[in-house]
TrEMBL record:
Residues 106-474 form the Solute-binding protein family domain. Residues 1-43 form the signal peptide. Pfam families: SBP_bac_5 (PF00496). PANTHER family: PERIPLASMIC BINDING COMPONENT OF ABC TRANSPORTER, PERIPLASMIC OLIGOPEPTIDE-BINDING PROTEIN-RELATED. Belongs to the bacterial solute-binding protein 5 family. Keywords: Signal, Transport. It comes from the Bacteria. InterPro entries: SBP_5 (IPR039424), SBP_5_dom (IPR000914). This is Dipeptide ABC transporter substrate-binding protein DppA. Transmembrane segments: none annotated. The keyword Transport applies.
Length: 559
C-alpha cells in the first residue's frame, strides 16, 4: 500500500537566506490560528505521559484519519489508531538512537497474543483490554465491524491490499467470545503476509461503539463523520486541535494499552517550503522535519545537532507508473521504451545526492529469504534502444505525454525535470503537470493521468504482498491500471506454496517479478532513504515499513 504507506515538490530554487524568518512568520501565524480557531475533535482520553512537547513541520499531505478514507497523509491517523499486532524495533547500523523495524517479527499490540491451528489456516487472536479515546473497551465486535467497514467502503483500498489473504470478512472472521476472534485463510502459505498485514495499517481496529452512534442512511459506516472526527481508535494519542492545511495538536493518553507516551504533546505544523522545514530543525524551531530535499539532508547530515536517518535497506522507491488504460502506454513496447528513456544514474546522483541507490530494475527487497533477480531485463538509460522500441510500436516520430507530480514532493519534481530532459533524446516529449497533494492523490485512485511520478512503498514486506500491492485487479491502488493474467497465474503459483519465504517460493516470486518487469507498467527508478531530519535531542526515531513515524516511540532529552 501506499500507504501506504507516503509519504512534497520542487527544483532547488530556494536559497538559504531568509528561511528562518519565513519560518517564524509561518509558525506564528499557525499558532495564532490554532489558538483562535482550533476545533476540539471528539476528545476522549486526553491525558498524557511525560512532560515534553515536540514540533513536527511537514508539507500539506492531506491528512487521512483512517486507511479506508482514501489516499493521503496517514501519519497522524496511525498515531490515533492501533493495530492487532506490531513489528518490534531494533537498533540500526547508523546508531545515534535511530531504529528500524524487524519486518518479519510480529508481537502483541491490541491483541495480547495469537494461536495458529495445526493446518496453518486459522489464526485465533486474544484481545487486550485496550480502551479507545472515547473510553470504550476493545471487543471482538470492534474487530468484526472494522473489517466490515473496510471491505464495504468505496474509498477503501483494503480489499485490493489484503487479497488473497482476506477477501470475505463475513465468512473468514468469526467471533468466539467478546475477547476472542478467529481469521481463517484460504491457504497456509499466506500466513506470513497475513501477520504482517495485521501489524500494518490494515490491522487498525476502530471503536465501533462510538462510530455506530454516527451512522446515517448515506453514511452507513460513519466514514464521512470519521474523516472530520479523528478520535475513533485505540492508539496512543488523541487529537485535541485540528485545522486542515494548517496544524494538528495531539496529546498522549495516560490510559493507552502500552502505557503513556514519553512525549505528551505533538504539534504538527504545515509549512510549505522544504528549505524552511529543514532549517527549522537546524535552528531548533522544530524537532522533526518531513519531506525535506535530498540536498538539505545531505548538507545537514554532518551537523551534530541534526540526524539524517539512514536505513539498511529502504523500502521506499521513486517510481513512475505508466497508466495502461489509454494511449500511449497501452502499448507494452512504448512502456519498455520509457524504461530505457529514464536517466536512473542521473536521478540518483543529481537529485538524491547519495541518499538513493539503484539495485536493479525490480521492486522486491533483495534481502528477503529466497530472493533472486535472475533473468530480469537490464533497464538502463539507452535512448537509442528506446527510439527503436518506439519505431517498433509504430511511433517513429516519437511520443508525447503528460507526467503528473505532487506539489508536496520536492524530490519527485526534480526527478521529473531530469526525466523530461533526458527522455527528449529518446523520442519522448514530456510535459510536467504539478498538482496539489489532494488532487495528485485522487488521480492515483482514478487512473486519469497518462503517467505520474512519486515516492511510494509496499507497507507489508513479504514478496507476495509487494508484487500485488500495485497490481491487484479492480483495485484503486493498481497505479497503472494494469491487469495481466500470466502475471496473476505466476503469483497464484507462489501463493499456493506452504512457506512464502522458502527457496521454492523465491523461485516463484522471481518468475512473477520477471513478467512484471518485462511488461513495465511501472518504472522503478531507485530506492531512497527517509526524507526526514530529526533533532539530536529526539530519541526513538524509527524507520517503519509504512514510512510513517511512530510518535509513541519518541522521547526528548532537553526538556
Amino acid at each position: 500500500m501506499s500507504a501506504a504507506r507516503s509519504p512534497d515538490g520542487s527544483s532547488p530554487r530556494w536559497g538559504a537566506a531568509g528561511r528562518r524568518s519565513r519560518f517564524a512568520v509561518v509558525a506564528a501565524a499557525v499558532l495564532a490560528l490554532t489558538v483562535a480557531c482550533s476545533t476540539s475533535a471528539n476528545s476522549g482520553g486526553t491525558g498524557g505521559g511525560g512532560g515534553s512537547t515536540m514540533t513536527i513541520v511537514t508539507p500539506d499531505t492531506s491528512i487521512v484519519w483512517a486507511i479506508d478514507n482514501g489516499f493521503g497523509g496517514y501519519e497522524q491517523g496511525k498515531n490515533v489508531q492501533a493495530t492487532m499486532l506490531r513489528k518490534p524495533f531494533v537498533d540500526s547500523k547508523q546508531g545515534r538512537g535511530v531504529q528500524q523495524q524487524d519486518v518479519y517479527s510480529y508481537t502483541p499490540y491490541l491483541a495480547k497474543g495469537y494461536d495458529v491451528s495445526a493446518d496453518g489456516l486459522t489464526y485465533t487472536f486474544h484481545l487486550s483490554d485496550a480502551k479507545s479515546q472515547a473510553g470504550n473497551t476493545l471487543t471482538a465486535d470492534d474487530v468484526l465491524w472494522s473489517f466490515e467497514r473496510k471491505f464495504n467502503t468505496a474509498t477503501s483500498v483494503i480489499p485490493g491490499v489484503m487479497a488473497p489473504s482476506l477477501t470475505d470478512p463475513k465468512s473468514q472472521i468469526r467471533k468466539i467470545d467478546d475477547k476472542t476472534v478467529t481469521f481463517t485463510l484460504p491457504n497456509a502459505g499466506l500466513g506470513t503476509t497475513f501477520l504482517a498485514l495485521m501489524s500494518d495499517l490494515c490491522g487498525q481496529i476502530y471503536d465501533s461503539t462510538l462510530l455506530k452512534q454516527h451512522v446515517s442512511a448515506d453514511d452507513p459506516y460513519a466514514v464521512k463523520w470519521s474523516s472530520q472526527n479523528p478520535n475513533f481508535g485505540f492508539g496512543p494519542y488523541s487529537v485535541t486541535a485540528y485545522q486542515p492545511g494548517v496544524s494538528v495538536t495531539m496529546t498522549g493518553r495516560d490510559d493507552f494499552v502500552l502505557g503513556a507516551p514519553k512525549i505528551k504533546t505533538i504539534n504538527v505544523r504545515i509549512v510549505a517550503d522544504p528549505g524552511t522545514r529543514a532549517n527549522a530543525v537546524k535552528n531548533g524551531d522544530a524537532q522533526l522535519a518531513e519531506s525535506v530535499t535530498p540536498a538539505d539532508s545531505s548538507s545537514l547530515a554532518q551537523d551534530s545537532k541534526v540526524i539524517a536517518p539512514q536505513v539498511d535497506n529502504p523500502n521506499t522507491y521513486i517510481m513512475m507508473p505508466l497508466v495502461t488504460n489509454k494511449a500511449p502506454f497501452d502499448n507494452v513496447a512504448v512502456r519498455q521504451a520509457m524504461a530505457y528513456a529514464t536517466p536512473y544514474s542521473q536521478i540518483v546522483d543529481n537529485v538524491y545526492r547519495g541518499l538513493a541507490k539503484r539495485t536493479g530494475p525490480g521492486f522486491l527487497l533483495n534481502d528477503a529469504p529466497g530472493y533472486s533477480s535472475a533473468g530480469f531485463p537490464n533497464y538502463t538509460y539507452d535512448p537509442d534502444k528506446a527510439k527503436a522500441l518506439l519505431a517498433q510500436a509504430g511511433f517513429p516520430n516519437g511520443v508525447s505525454f503528460t507526467l503528473a507530480v505532487s506539489a508536496a514532493d520536492p524530490d519527485t519534481r526534480e526527478a521529473a525535470i531530469q526525466i523530461q530532459t533526458a527522455a527528449k533524446a529518446a523520442g519522448f516529449t514530456v510535459t510536467i503537470d504539478e498538482q496539489p497533494a489532494a488532487e495528485f492523490a485522487q488521480q492515483r485512485v482514478n487512473h486519469t493521468s497518462e503517467a505520474f511520478i512519486l515516492r511510494d512503498y509496499a507497507i507489508t514486506l513479504t514478496p507476495p504482498y509487494e508484487l500485488l500491492v500495485y497490481t491487484a485487479p479492480k483495485s484503486s491502488n493498481n497505479f497503472a491500471d494494469w491487469e495481466y493474467k500470466p502475471f496473476y497465474d505466476a503469483l497464484a503459483a507462489g501463493n499456493a506454496l506452504p512457506d512464502a519465504l522458502s527457496p521454492q517460493a523465491g523461485a516463484a516470486w522471481n518468475a512473477a517479478e520477471k513478467i512484471y518487469l518485462d511488461q513495465s507498467p511501472i518504472v522503478f527508478i531507485a530506492q531512497v532513504q527517509p526524507n526526514v531530519l530529526v533533532s539530536s535531542t529526539i530519541g526513538g526515531y524509527a524507520w517503519t515499513s509504512d514510512n510513517w513515524i511512530d510518535y509513541f516511540n519518541l522521547s526528548r532529552t532537553d526538556t
